[in-house]
Amino acid sequence: MTEVLRIDALELHHVTARGRLRAVDGVTLAIARGETLGLVGESGRGKSTLARCIVGISRPTAGRLAIAGVAPGPGRASRLARARAVQKVFQDPGGALNPCLTVGRIIEELLRVHGVGSRAGRREAALDLARRVGLADFHLARLPHELSGGQRQRVSIARALVLRPALLVCDEAVSALDVSVQAQVLNLLVALQRDLGLTCPFVSHDLAVVRYIGHRIAVMDLGRIVEIGPATAVWERRAHPCTRALVAAIPDAAARHDDAALLEGDVPSPLDPPSGCGFRTRCPFARDRCAKGRPLLREQGGGLAVACHFAEEIAPGAS
Ligand SMILES: Nc1ncnc2c1ncn2[C@@H]1O[C@H](COP(=O)(O)OP(=O)(O)OP(=O)(O)O)[C@@H](O)[C@H]1O
Ligand code: SF4
Ligand SMILES: [Mg+2]
Fold first, then answer.
1. Mean pLDDT along residues 260-274
2. Closest atom of ligand 1 to CA, residue 51
3. pLDDT surpasses 70 at 231
4. What pLDDT is recorded for position 318?
5. What is the percent of the chain with per-residue pLDDT over 70, rounded to a whole number?
6. Which residues are near ligand 1 (CB < 6 Å)?
7. What is the distance, to the nearest Å, from the Cα of residue 276 to the centroid of all Cα atoms in its chain?
8. How far is the CA of 250 from the centre of ligand 2 (A)?
9. What is the pLDDT of residue 319?
10. DSSP assignment of 211-277, as one string?
11. Cα–Cα separations (whole angstroms), residue 158 to 45, 79, 131, 141, 184
């Protein structure tokens, strides 16, 4: 397995007027070439903060991060190398695009900034990518406001891929789109994964979305990964109660089974996390031990790891 991204004990703390907020609180993971890792969790659980650390927009407080084996350092050369290696597609397809540039210019912009190819070569690359993401040739002459939300997100994807980055970081890339358009853009990303061998940390609050697109899924709660493993195992086993709560949040009743009953109790603030397990104020399985020791990720077999003292009991059949 060739690791494109490796993160070790990564932390990002915000110092606020009300105290220290551990937005990312010790995350360790690796993503292999060609793999999509769905990062899922409720709102405010640290997903975007982690994505921003990977892209280089935010600087971690502690821990290590390496992209294709290289730890990004300070300085212009390192920043440029990272910008070539890591690209992003975020939620707002409108706001992320320069309203004054045509779609063709937007897609080829990064080639120009990085001095790649001739003018004709850049035009050719933009055309090729526009077609790959399902835009018509005539769209290249349009301005972003002349496109639909789905088309704009296709432009964002084409722009992000033009430098052939090692990593494509998606953060709620389909969340702002209508459900039918969401499906089209997800299908496009799956096709690009297949054709270009993309390596992709894919953030979403929606477990159904990451299940569809992710080879593996990591569930985040209070800045930590509480469950990680193959998408099928995470979805079918739901070994961590937090994963069960995310299933219960999916509007599709067929997916919910008996999980709906689990959404009770106070949602703790990351500024004042509970002692022990961060999920215990809402966990129907919580008992004394959960208040004392912080559960660490433990292997459950089949590549699944779960941070719950009672994972074997909650999801029998492990290891
Ligand atoms: N600049 C900041 N200063 C202080 N706290 C911040 C700052 N940015 C984010 N936070 C806090 O860090 C925590 C993690 O935020 P983050 O945006 O990573 O969550 P998220 O999981 O992406 O949520 P969502 O699903 O709503 O996008 C939240 O509690 C948020 O309020
Ligand atoms: S450690 Fe305890 S509180 Fe935390 S998820 Fe497991 S059972 Fe629930
Ligand atoms: Mg977010």
1. 74
2. 18
3. yes
4. 46
5. 95
6. 14, 16, 21, 23, 41, 43-49, 205, 270
7. 26
8. 21
9. 46
10. HHH-SEEEEEETTEEEEEEEHHHHHHH--SHHHHHHHHTSS-GGGTTTGGGG--S----TTSPPSS-
11. 29, 21, 9, 15, 15
- 55: amino acid identity, one letter: V
Instruction: Write the CA distances from 316 to 11, 237, 313, integer angstroms.
Output: 32, 9, 5
Number of H helices, E strands in the chain: 11, 11
Residue 261 scores a pLDDT above 80: no
Whole-angstrom Cα distance, residue 284 to residue 77? 51
pLDDT of residue 76: 86
Ligand 1 centroid distance, CA of 19 (Å):
14
For residue 291, the one-letter residue type is: A
- What pLDDT is attached to residue 263? 57
- 150 near 188, Cβ under 8 Å? no
- Cα-based distances in Å from 23 to 7, 222, 249, 269, 270: 15, 7, 22, 11, 7
Q: Which tokens in the block code for residue 302?
A: 């089949």
Question: How high is the mean pLDDT of the chain?
Answer: 91
Whose tokens are 């360790």? That residue is: 28
Query: Quick one: average pLDDT of 274-302?
Result: 93
Residues 164 and 132: beta-carbon distance below 8 Å = no
- Percent of the chain past pLDDT 90, that is, above it, reads 78
**Token pair 């990720």 in the structure block, residue:** 297
Task: State the angle between helix axes of 149-161 and 119-132 in degrees (0 to 180), rounded to the nearest 10.
Answer: 130
Q: At what angle do helices 149-161 and 179-196 cross, to 10 degrees?
A: 20
